[in-house]
Amino acid sequence: MSAALRPALEQGIATLGLALSAAQVDLLLDFLALLQKWNKVYNLTAVRDPQEMLTHHLLDSLAAVAPLQRHVQGLVRAEGALTPLLDVGSGGGLPGVVFAICCPDVDVSCVDTVAKKAAFIQQAAASLRLRNLRGIHARVESLTGPYAVVSCRAFASLPDFTSWSRPALAADGVWLAMKGKHPVEEIAALPADVQVFHVEQLQVPALDAERCIVWMRAA
Coil, strand or helix: which one is 166? Predict the structure, then answer.
């Protein structure tokens, strides 16, 4: 299965302009295989077809990697220090596990209220030998940071996402919310102390759908 998907994945990576090593491509395919295997028992995602998983999950998450890398490269940090990122409601590890594979300089914590989903992340971290990945079984409201980046993908409305995860956000941290269409109404509903500083359009290879990242910070 993995071998059959490799050309499409490599094509997608090239289209996105990502510089990933062969080892990182292997890890992405291994992660997809793991997701499929666990999905049979744990129902981590509604998408079952491997090809669909590749476009709707893997490539969709990969589309946010370059924007994240650009942001992280602009941060000041001690030499050798990793940038802490919290991925909220990451379910089967999307985009959290993808971020951990593609961004070794980012320390990814995936939080989910469902125990088996957090357990899957822990399993993925062990199986894929990703030292910069962990699963946390908790409500995001109970976490304190400081995380330089707090991300989510199709998790909740922007007002809820920022409100629940605020205690975890570093003072100078940012929110990275992956959305479909430009969420005009959600942005309008944000409180005055949350500032949207950029809405970045994403083009997902082989997926004919609108995608964007809403970048926010505490004002």
Answer: helix
What is the DSSP pairing of strand 211-218 with strand 194-202? antiparallel
DSSP strands (E only) in the chain: 83-88, 106-112, 133-137, 147-153, 169-179, 194-202, 211-218
Instruction: Judge contact between 56 and 207, C-beta under 8 A.
Output: yes
Q: Is 95's pLDDT higher than 90?
A: yes
Spatial CA neighbour of 122 closest among 53, 60, 38? 38
Residue 180 in tokens: 């479909």
Q: Which two tokens stand for residue 44?
A: 């981590």
First to last CA, the chain: 47
Cβ–Cβ < 8 Å for 89, 156: yes
| 174 vs 133: CA distance, rounded Å | 19
Question: Hey, what are 176's tokens?
Answer: 């990275």
Rounded to whole angstroms, the Cα distance separating 211 from 202 reads 5
Coil, strand or helix: which one is 144? Answer: coil
Element (H, E) at 70: helix 65-73
Residue 80's pLDDT is: 85
pLDDT at 66 exceeding the cut of 70: yes
Q: Distance between CA atoms of 45 and 36, rounded to whole angstroms?
A: 9
Per-residue model confidence as pLDDT tens digits over 167-191: 999 999 999 999 999 999 999 999 9
